[in-house]
UniProtKB/TrEMBL annotation, chain A:
Domain of life the protein comes from: Bacteria
Name listed for the protein in its UniProt record: ATPase
Coiled coil: none
Cleavable signal peptide: none
InterPro entries, alphabetized: ArsA/GET3_ATPase-like, ATPase_ArsA/GET3, P-loop_NTPase
Gene3D superfamilies from the UniProt entry: P-loop containing nucleotide triphosphate hydrolases (3.40.50.300)
UniProt GO MF annotations: ATP binding; ATP hydrolysis activity
Domain ArsA/GET3 Anion-transporting ATPase-like: 14-189
Organism name: Streptomyces poonensis
Lineage start: Bacteria, Bacillati, Actinomycetota, Actinomycetes, Kitasatosporales
TrEMBL record, chain B:
Coiled-coil region list: none
Feature: compositional bias, Basic and acidic residues: 27-39
Segments of this protein annotated with the region Disordered: 1-39, 361-399
Molecular function terms from GO: ATP binding; ATP hydrolysis activity
Bias-annotated ranges (Low complexity): 1-26, 375-388
PANTHER family in alphabetical order: ANION TRANSPORTER ATPASE-RELATED, ARSENICAL PUMP-DRIVING ATPASE ARSENITE-TRANSLOCATING ATPASE
Name of this protein: Anion-transporting ATPase
Domain ArsA/GET3 Anion-transporting ATPase-like: 59-331
Amino acid sequence: MDGLVTLEYVSRLQVVSGKGGTGKTTVAAALALALATEGKRALLVEVEGRQGIAQLFETEALPYGERKIAVAPGGGEVYALAIDPELALLDYLQMFYKMGGAGRALKKLGAIDFATTIAPGLRDVLLTGKACEAVRRKEKNGRFTYDYVVMDAPPTGRITRFLNVNDEVAGLAKIGPIHNQAQAVMRVIKSPETAVHLVTLLEEMPVQETVDGIAELRGARLPVGRVIVNMVRPTVLDAADLEFMETASRPAIARALSGTGLGGARRGGGADRLVMPLLEQAGEYAERHALEHEQRTVLQELGLPLHELPLLAEGMDLAGLYELATELRQQGIS
Amino acid sequence: MTTDPSATHDSASAHDSASAHGSAPAHDTHGPSRAHDPHRSIRPARLLEVDPLLDDPATRIVVCCGSGGVGKTTTAAALGLRAAERGRKVVVLTIDPARRLAQSMGIDSLDNVPRRVKGIDDTAGGELHAMMLDMKRTFDEIVEAHADAERAAAILGNPFYQSLSAGFAGTQEYMAMEKLGQLRARDEWDLIVVDTPPSRSALDFLDAPKRLGSFLDGKLIRVLLAPAKMGGRAGMKFLNVGMSMMTGALGKLLGGQLLKDVQTFVAAMDSMFGGFRTRADATYKLLQAPGTAFLVVAAPERDALREAAYFVERLAAEDMPLAGLVLNRVHGSGAAQLSAERALAAAENLEETRIVDQQDGKVGLCNSPDTHGCSESPASEGPGSAAPAPEPGSPADDRVVTDRAATDNRTTTDDPTIEQLTAGLLRLHAERMQLLSREQRTRDRFAALHPEVAVAEVAALPGDVHDLAGLRDIGDRLAAVRPELPETETGA
């Protein structure tokens, strides 16, 4: 790829968001694989408790612990962590305040449940906090434990609030350890160390949500990274083909079909019966093609690096994940 | 999550392939690869008939749930419109509609009140109202309705309340249920159609009211209220020790000032807690009542159907009445008799002919470097054919002209243009058939796991829906009972 690409700073915390159904978990996983390529170590973090990563990598549910989940081309490693807010909180109490016992008492009272589900943003504070801890963690030799941390984050509609929650919490809790923790997290998230990517499809609603999401992220001064269009269907018929299709003679198409052994070209013959349905499908394709073109233009106007990942005809599996990782790497994303 | 769904799926599909053997009807038009398709014969035991459900005066609430991105809001709106045009007085409660959809229904202004939707066919005497949920406002209204002015002002001004109401995990779910309860209590509509928030998981939406309720009832509340209430009371020494330890720990964690905000908030809300709890319980019961019908919405994709299966299981566990599954974006083909393999082989055949004749191998990717060079018009006149290759996505205008001109005197089968187009049509078809078989596999997996669930399939539209005509179309597709989808063969 372009030599300049490698000079670009690659953020160490890469947050992947996107509208539901756009495949953000898949893209996050592929991104982690791409970043880990060539002997790097990446941590893939899940925050929504859906065990999407385990399903993607075809392993059993992830425990709350960092676990090696895949080997990247060139000897790199991908670790995975499904953050459980409750355990993260107990962890945190123990780690920073030696309050393991109090933690158990709090749990009994329902305070942990309160803190992780009801208290405004506390849950999100814990999730982002844990991810930032992984970003900053160092080995004894002074090297970072993980070269990259990739977060499979909440969807576009909630991402700004999710990442910004620490600002809010720092405002609510004006002093104390939570306040300090929240501020430390915000320092990482608002720095060039972090990039927030949005995954979309070439459809109107996801694109609109992406545009709105970027405006919100920018408004909150959060670092927007790239836009990744997922599941891009191959171009089977180009604009010229579609134009020609309008005027093409149906009997001629039937004869071409017939020539390949698909039945008779005469009216009512096997090939003839295929013509209308095939043209109908092509008509739908044309309509979609035009819509996709429109949506692509909207995305191009955002002025952000734009990447496209192909729709995998065989559906998503582990091999497909590696394919997408290679694609991302070729497009200079890592 | 204690079960591993993939394991269940695997054993289930092993079952269907066994049962499908030998039962596949013989067709005459298909190729040799046809022999046995293990995925064909499983059909949902029941078809979900939407119209009887919508028409039944006993149906008072329809709840659409499902994972994000499957067309839940659109489905809710389409159902509402259809019911209204069939004569019912309907209100649709949407959570976060796409802007253009909201505009088309005239509810893009967030005022938390149902608005009458104009432009529907009201000849059957129905009405359609719609509203978009404003969760903060809904919360504020509860506070205002249940506290005296002074107390309400104290609550509304409390920083903790402001964060809580604007979006703690679960507020949206709780407020959606609260609003549903309010709408139902007004009894102005025959039918309420509810869209549910795009929850992280199936659990959130059913759990939020309970969770809030148990929090409000819980010991924690007592702890938080302790400093305010315990002042003059003796005889509670034992509790008191525990309390001060707890508040101490909380204070250490949250910072004293936040704890104070929380305590003030809880004290101010104290009188309302009973009300919250009662209403959460009432809404929960309402959801279990016979007049309620849950529709799980999904698309024929692995993740969406996995979530749908969770919903189905959860609803059953909670005794919530499930009417069925709405499967959006299902693809079909009018030429399903032609398999993907045969279509691809035929396309290659057509392209080979051309390679021999024209020695140019356009395969159909617009970004292949020779897109332009393959302009199948050796006789093409004019400078157009010498122009540089066009960028992908920007159709080369001059080339189109060339093709057009060339078309006029080429209409025979030998014509490479026709062959190229035909090959493209065949490749497109192969892609469609592969998609069909993938969709079929995921659907069959679901049907094997949950044969009891009635299913309504909605044929895919090429574009997005953002007007009443589009919603009406979706409604028609929803209600069209499709006893037999086009039979598919296993694709490549």
